[in-house]
Amino acid sequence: MGQKRCLFFLAIFACLLFFSRGRVLNTRSDDGRPVYNHTLALTLVEYTSAVYMSDLTQLFTWTCERCNGLTKGFQVIEIIVDIEHCLQGYVGWAKDLNAIVIAFRGTQEHSIQNWVSDLFWKQLDLNYPDMPDAMVHHGFYSAYHNTTVRPAILGAVKRAKKSYGANINIMVTGHSMGAAMAAFCGLDLVVNEGEENVQVMTFGQPRIGNAAFASYYSLLVPNTFRITHDRDIVPHLPPYFYLFPQKTYHHFPTEVWVRDFSVLKHVLFGVEKVCDNTGEDPTCCRSVMGTSISDHLSYFGVELMCETWRQCNIVMSHEMESYSRKDSKGNIFLSRTVPSTEVIETKTLSKIGISSL
Ligand SMILES: *[C@@H]1O[C@H](CO)[C@@H](O)[C@H](O)[C@H]1NC(C)=O
Ligand SMILES: *[C@@H]1O[C@H](CO)[C@@H](O)[C@H](O)[C@H]1NC(C)=O
């Protein structure tokens, strides 16, 4: 290679380096859209994986196998197990992110296959309150809005804000059905709670509303990234009929499509593509047939499911009793006031937290 050519390539390389660094350093791109943060995605996928743990003691004390790595040092403030509807979520404080993290678990029905095939038939059967023409799926909406989940989450966020400041960042995440709940939660925090620093990042999210809903959503929660993995089937559902764009389900932006780059069936790495601002970028996951359930259950190589498929199975040790309360329907809440430095202190304080809920 001639010296000139060599210099030419070096220049190109330097440019690439410059521009890629520029992306990393800015949280907003030139057109004002929030910039996708790969490291944050890797961190939040670990938070989302942990919410599948059925051992509530390990989850509450953040000592579970999945509570390591990038999420180390996380402090759980509240765990919600809605036994009635088989839902689980938690709220906590991530010091290194300087943020409250809220995570929702995906469905724990007997089989993921059944849950996925039901998605084909979900109707747009609810008007989203106070948003003309915005339609959503009642089931997804209610899982967040009409269960024990919402009041417990909002209560925990209020407690956290007392300790960590009113303008704190809130990051909402979830996988699958939990991704749908995360989206409704993020929107709720903005619309009904007046929160200003809300970010949503979901993994393998199904469509949850129509085009009108998607436009409202993207205006109100612009800092939202919807990660889709290669041929994951769930982001393709409920179906999008592009001939009837006003009548069907429609994703909100911004999708980030992660394709597997594999050699001889070994996945070497994922290639991420940040998609356009329509929510339905035809060059992203929609450019392939979404047929894979296994792509749905793993994101960035992190497993997003329980260790076993057992419906709403939980384990909890006796030490947790002082933190926990049960409502009349058998739903379980583990709460702690913040900040807690000592075990003794948290024990006495947690009683206050429980009764104040
Ligand atoms: C991306 O997220 C990580 C935390 O996961 C943070 O340390 C880093 O500063 C973020 N980068 C930008 C540009 O916001
Ligand atoms: C909320 O749930 C209750 C009982 O589960 C039901 O009767 C009510 O219609 C639901 N409300 C909405 C808005 O879905």
Automatic annotation (TrEMBL):
Pfam families: Lipase_3
Domain of life assignment: Eukaryota
UniProt-recorded Gene Ontology molecular function terms: hydrolase activity
Gene3D superfamilies tied to this protein: alpha/beta hydrolase
Record's signal peptide: 1-22
SUPFAM superfamilies registered for this protein in UniProt: alpha/beta-Hydrolases
An individual GO BP term: lipid metabolic process
Record domain Fungal lipase-type: where: 101-239
Alphabetically ordered keywords of this record: Hydrolase, Signal
InterPro entries for the chain: AB_hydrolase_fold (IPR029058), Fungal_lipase-type (IPR002921), Sec_MonoDiacylglyc_Lipase (IPR051218)
Protein's name in the database: Fungal lipase-type domain-containing protein
The species this protein was found in: Eutrema salsugineum
